[in-house]
Specification:
Radius of gyration: 19 Å
Order of helices and strands: HHHEEEEEEEEEEEEEEEEEEH
Structural class: mainly beta
Strand content: 35-45%
Distance between the termini: 12 Å
């Protein structure tokens, strides 16, 4: 737990370094495209299509190929949150990079960027968190609940994530995030949150690569990850994403690309360093994989989690 406490403290420090003005006002000059280009890589996204808007579970696989301090590799950014892994800034005592898993859920209603501004009854409510996971409120990009745990992922290794929606009465729903931990060979809970059911279904779905260090030097380093397969559960069957949309944020830097990873047969998304744009998959366009790599639908272990009843609330003493 000491390691996790240290990581959470580091994450808070990261948010501060990323710009207190931006944390207070998402419309500030901090986010002007020309200012973004001076300090950070462009954020790039890979949308999972076709859309299954009312899906209640999402399973993703991702392989990080190249990382740098201050990078978020989101396996799935869905309608009300995101899940993935990050590399923080510092080193662990043994000299290895500080690497974590993270799962966040936004409050159902937008109350700005101040985590204390949302009325108590409208906030994401923590139901449960997994062993070694710490949770906190967040702000600066909307508000909600965040969970984080030490997770020493490595480049080239498979990362598997799962998000599940469960009904919680007529007016609420539970959203739970899981990550497969190869150290114990099983799915482990990141956290589960209860939010207002202004809509049903997870909605949308994309992977992304983001530079959150934003210290000018950080844009000099390449970050790359391959996303897929990505499955959506509609309550009856799994739907495999076979079409993808390549997008970016407003940062005008051109060091981005998206291309097929010949080893895995899925799309590899990259930003930063000396990356060259590729004409084969231009930004703001869609591409299909006509013959997707052979892959198995999520197995019994995943279905057991999906079919489990809603989680009971646990009171934690932090």
């Amino acid at each position: 737990m000491k390691t996790v406490h240290f990581l959470m403290a580091a994450a808070v420090a990261l948010a501060t370094l990323c710009g207190s003005t931006a944390q207070a006002d998402r419309y500030s000059d901090y986010w002007l495209p020309e200012n973004m280009a001076k300090r950070q890589c462009a954020s790039v996204h890979l949308g999972y299509l076709p859309s299954i808007p009312h899906h209640t579970a999402a399973y993703q696989e991702m392989v990080v190929e190249k990382s740098a301090p201050g990078t978020y590799f989101a396996a799935n950014n869905f309608g009300c949150g995101y899940i993935g892994v990050q590399e923080l800034y510092g080193k662990n005592p043994d000299g290895t990079p500080q690497r974590v898993a993270i799962f966040s859920i936004w409050d159902a209603k937008d109350s700005g960027d101040n985590p204390n501004a949302a009325p108590e009854e409208e906030r994401a409510l923590l139901i449960q968190r997994g062993d070694g996971v710490e949770t906190t409120r967040f702000g600066g990009e909307g508000t909600g609940g965040k969970s984080m745990r030490n997770f020493p992922w490595k480049e080239g290794e498979l990362i598997r994530t799962l998000v599940i929606e469960r009904p919680d009465g007529d007016e609420f729903r539970q959203i739970a995030g899981y990550i497969y931990d190869p150290a114990v060979r099983k799915w482990t809970l990141m956290s589960c949150w209860r939010i207002q059911a202004l809509s049903r279904g997870l909605g949308g779905g994309c992977g992304f690569v983001e530079d959150f260090r934003r210290n000018v030097e950080s844009k000099q380093y390449e970050r790359r990850a391959t996303f897929g397969p990505a499955y959506r559960w509609d309550g009856k069957d799994w739907h495999l994403a076979t079409e993808f949309r390549f997008t970016r944020d407003a940062n005008p830097l051109k060091e981005i690309n998206c291309r097929i990873d010949p080893k895995r047969g899925w799309y590899s998304l990259a930003t930063g360093g000396t990356i060259a744009e590729e004409a084969d998959f231009p930004v703001f366009s869609n591409k299909k994989i006509d013959n997707p790599p052979a892959c198995k639908k999520p197995g019994k272990d995943v279905m057991k989690l999906i079919k489990a009843p809603k989680l009971r609330k646990i009171e934690y003493k932090d």
